[in-house]
Amino acid sequence: MLNGTEILTTAQMRAIETAAMDSGAVTGLDLMERAGAAVAGQIRLRWPKPGQATVLCGPGNNGGDGYVIARLLHRAGWRLRVLGLDNIPGPDAAEMKRRWCEIGPIEALTGDALRRPGESSDVYVDAIFGTGLARPPEGAIADILRYLGGSGGDRAFFRERLVAVDCPSGLCMDSGAFLGRRRQPGDYDLQARLTVAFDSPKPGHLLERGPESCGELVIADIGLQDWRIIEPGRARSLRPPALTAIWPLFAIPDRRRMGFESLKRGAWLAKRESRAGHKFEHGHALIIAGDFGHGGAARLAARAALRAGAGLVTICPPRSAMVEHLGPPDALMRRPVDEAADLARILEDKRITALCLGPGCGVDRAAELLPVALASGRACLLDADALTALAASGLEGLHADCVLTPHRGEFARLFPDLAERLAGPQPPGPTGDPDQQSHDRDAYRAALAGMHGPAFSKIDAARAAAGRAGATVLLKGPDTVIAEPSRARAPRLDRPGRAAIHSAFDVPWLATAGAGDVLAGLITGLLARDLNPFSAATTGAWLHAAAARQAGPGLIADDLPERIPDVLDQAASGAGGDP
Ligand SMILES: NC(=O)C1=CN([C@@H]2O[C@H](COP(=O)(O)OP(=O)(O)OC[C@H]3O[C@@H](n4cnc5c(N)ncnc54)[C@H](O)[C@@H]3O)[C@@H](O)[C@H]2O)[C@@H](O)CC1
Ligand SMILES: Nc1ncnc2c1ncn2[C@@H]1O[C@H](COP(=O)(O)OP(=O)(O)O)[C@@H](O)[C@H]1O
Ligand SMILES: [K+]
């Protein structure tokens, strides 16, 4: 299991490489040789018997890596076909290309060459584009990428044989979107068996289409440690399905420290054990429930808040629905809340440290109670109906101790413009595929021409939302992103708050009714225990997925809180890994 570590944006990665090269301690050629050697080594590990490899080299340094890989595989006894472009790449890639040319020929990088009958290879190395992808692939290269993605009917063939250098080409490493393609899974998206990335994962390896497209992800050390901090003992190889990590991410390259922050979960647990504290020292969480017949969601949240270690948890349905909450757990307290004044009265008790509003609440009731909840200044977890109410009120009254936990639909209600950007860039035409939309081809090309740089990512969206809300935002999904507002006194665009990705692609059974309510309860319990909003949200996301992992397929939301003790036990003993 992978422990929490840093991810780097492509800009940060470039900053580190530049710092390393500027120091004079390492050259670009050295780095390229190491990168190529890492990929060739991983290939030889998986295919111990030398076979035939086709290496596809693009116009930049990613292609340079490809020429190194070809040379090293050739030296190891492989038969090589190298397809490349007739361009003059940067000096390092040009030198690697020259060294390959002393060994063998370069064929033109065209679909026809790739498709030539009788030229089947055991391994195809995709060294076309890496971090330098600046716009959607077009023309012959787009054709090649579609072919590798199975447009010739060979999807399974390439999925077994494709090794991507740094990333599958066309994937935007800052967002996990295929540039110029639909954000949803598309036909012929590249799917590699293995991706070898350098130094650190990038957001695109973990978000959206990245995990599926990359296949097994190996992070190769190319000796850039001195220009960043590496957490001791960190795992360096991972399979996306096994990812459970929290990945703090900072936007500002800082050569001394790239911003890793251990969540110190072990220490946090130990602190709890060592406190000879009264139950109130572990906080008191209030869970607002809805009308009769809708109490299940709030009860799931309440159970989760108890399991997360809140000292006390009180559920607050309307008086008419109290009877629905008379069953277990007996640890749960019950108090009726019919209207805002009732809630205000309960909140006069200063020992109440956090509230959860939204699950099963009903939009009208959430709208009525929201102002009192927010005005109380208590830590507030807002989910489900509270988010709908919040969207209608224009985010009014939010403060820094609030955590919003929208899924995509709720996010779109709260931040329609951000959701729209996140759904794009959408090339014109119903399918967005120029081959299927020939009448729209000109418009498509015009749109592509205007596209530069990384696509707007889920991290960008969550960060912008957190900045706007002045609160922590957890945007749900298999690639949950958590962002906090800027902690700078005056919010600065170039200094956003922390962000983390929590990857749960390996537990698709978590997408089940009520799972979100449990997450809301876990985070509320942690808020009640005085974790700061960002830590509560990241820790809650981790606990949630870890519980789902333990429960396995067949999970229903009710199972999740019951798994928490085992998850905590394993985390405390180190067996479950420190997220
Ligand atoms: N910078 C370094 O020192 C190192 C870089 N390495 C490799 O270098 C890669 C980054 O290299 P580059 O920055 O040269 O970038 P890439 O090789 O990823 O691609 C950049 C080139 O492709 C062109 N390009 C971008 N999008 C295009 C499109 N849609 N259609 C046609 N051409 C397009 C650019 O104009 C540029 O010529 C990394 O991913 C990694 O594989 C490694 O060798 C390690 C060391
Ligand atoms: N494919 C998936 N794999 C893993 N986790 C997922 C997946 N889809 C959704 N989730 C997680 O499941 C939970 C579902 O929450 P939500 O959408 O609010 O559902 P509900 O309202 O039914 O509880 C969230 O924590 C989300 O991150
Ligand atoms: K690549």
From TrEMBL:
Keyword NADP: yes
Location of the YjeF C-terminal domain: 262-571
Signal peptide from the UniProt entry: none
Residues given in the record as K(+) binding sites: N62, D126, S169
CDD domains in alphabetical order: YXKO-related (cd01171)
One annotated GO molecular function: NAD(P)HX epimerase activity
Keywords: ATP-binding, Isomerase, Lyase, Metal-binding, Multifunctional enzyme, NAD, NADP, Nucleotide-binding, Potassium
CC cofactor: Mg(2+); K(+)
YjeF N-terminal domain residues: 13-230
Quaternary structure (record): Homotetramer.
Protein name: Bifunctional NAD(P)H-hydrate repair enzyme
Gene: nnrD
